[in-house]
Design brief:
about 70 residues, alpha+beta
Length: about 70
């Protein structure tokens, strides 16, 4: 359990360090993401962004499992 928490903590720190470069990837604004804006509010569902993140994480977990 402690090993998992350490890995999660290191991952969060690395994401924080590389955040300026991660923002330049425009994740969350890809074609295929659903965005509905109306006068009273809006709805946003990042379909394609979620798929890309899922594929990348699946590949990473698969690589580290071996």
């Amino acid at each position: 359990m402690s090993r998992t928490l350490i890995i999660i903590g290191i991952t969060i720190v690395l994401i924080g360090i590389f955040w300026p470069w991660i923002q330049k990837l425009n994740l969350g604004r890809l074609p295929g993401d659903i965005m509905i804006e109306k006068e009273n509010g809006g709805f946003y569902f990042p379909v394609v962004t979620s798929l890309i993140i899922s594929i990348v994480l699946s590949l990473l977990f698969w690589i580290f499992r071996k």
